[in-house]
Design a protein that fits this description.
The structure is a homodimer. By secondary structure, the first copy, chain A, is α/β, with parallel strands linked by helices. Chain A is built from six helices and 14 strands. Chain A has a single domain, classed as Metallo-beta-lactamase, Chain A (4-Layer Sandwich). The first copy, chain A, has a six-stranded mixed β-sheet with strand order 1-2-3-4-5-6. Chain A has a six-stranded mixed β-sheet with strand order 7-8-9-10-13-14. The model of chain A has no long low-confidence stretch (mean pLDDT 97). Chains A and B meet through strand 6 and strand 7 of A and strand 6 and strand 7 of B. Strand 7 of chain A pairs antiparallel with strand 6 of chain B.
Chain lengths: 227, 227
């Protein structure tokens, strides 16, 4: 499998490219509109065809490249059915999957940060978007966020994966690139060490986070696939 | 919306083409491999691009055109996740949806005839495959069929649609082209007139149907997308 992790500095967003070595079909997970030239370059250098762009959720902190990638490469825009983004092409639900060559990209519905969050499981890796982050998790105080729901999503859909599964998050603000399910299950500051749901809810309620800087630009743009 | 109903005589199969008048994108539901030239002709005449081929289930009575359509038109092959057909491109689950232009094709999981049956709801129409037929239903005595499951699927996922919804079945053996939800809910010989689940199970158990003629050819072929 061809794998590449991209980083967008302003919003500390990770974007992932996965591709089949045989068929040269590729997907991008959480592409950022400002970074399109980087994606185009890698696709060209590696001789890949972009078949799908996947968003793990409707982002509040950066604008998706979905629409521009569709216009440029003819790929399909994939989102969860609950996203309320009418311009998507394929609206997945829990356990839906997309195949590129011999790679299966499996959706697991992981709401809580938003009501349309999806993690993608691919051959020993899980792309968690803003559900589970390294030593943290997505905030739950806007976009229909709910701490109890996020706790259940992470426990049932992510911590149920084998401990050695590599966790690739949607963001990291401290230079971390990846983690593992075992590491987060045991040591995540908010969820690790067998923390109860009530303890988690209390932690999330006391975070007192500032109003997200780009939400008023990012949300309307992402509801239109980044147009 | 552009709509066309095709008929394949040998297996009495209905295939449906739906397309957006603006974007000219099209889907085919349950295409049959012997009929590809008819589909190609209509696509060309109407200046349409085939974006997806959808199968309501893994058919036992005819071979899908999915793979040949993919090779000819570059469309994506869509099936339910439970189908066990590894060569599909997009594996949907209940409430997944696919958009072509301004048309939303919504999946409703309707198992019972097989464990991977899906009906598709599109603007006042429902394409029921072999779950609900005109004045009948799909058999439940092979391919993980189950009469109780089929009863629940039809009641919860199809009879819950508005009465005026047009029912387009996967087959008809008597020249019927379509029905309505109201007609079938009230008058279907096996399910109408408030028949109980136990009555339905008894009817299905007593059908005593012959071994399906083409199942030994069709099933392995369809597990390989009709290759």
């Amino acid at each position: 499998m061809i794998f590449h992790q991209f980083f967008e500095k302003e919003s500390s967003t990770y974007t992932y490219l996965l591709a089949c070595e045989d068929t040269r079909e590729a997907v991008l997970i959480d592409p950022v509109v400002s970074e399109i030239e980087h994606y185009a370059q890698l696709l060209a250098v590696k001789n890949l065809t972009l078949a799908y762009s996947l968003d793990t959720h409707v982002h509040a902190d950066h604008v998706t490249a979905a629409n521009q990638l569709r216009e440029k490469f003819g790929c399909k825009t994939v989102l969860h059915r609950n996203s309320g983004v009418a311009c998507g092409d394929i609206f997945i639900t829990d356990k839906s999957a997309i195949r590129i060559g011999d790679i299966l990209v499996e959706a697991r519905y992981t709401p809580g940060h938003t009501n349309a969050c999806t993690s993608y499981v691919v051959e020993g890796m899980v792309f968690t978007g803003d559900a589970l982050l390294i030593d943290g998790c997505g905030r739950t105080d806007f976009q229909e966020g709910n701490a109890a729901t996020l706790y259940d999503s992470i426990h049932q859909q992510i911590f149920s994966l084998p401990d050695e599964t590599i966790v690739y998050p949607g963001h990291d603000y401290n230079g971390g690139l990846s983690s593992t399910v075992g590491q987060e299950r045991l040591h995540n500051a908010r969820l690790g060490n067998g923390r109860s749901k009530q303890e988690f809810i209390d932690i999330m309620q006391k975070l007192n986070l500032p109003y997200p800087k780009k939400i008023d630009i990012a949300l309307p743009a992402n509801k239109a696939c980044g147009k």
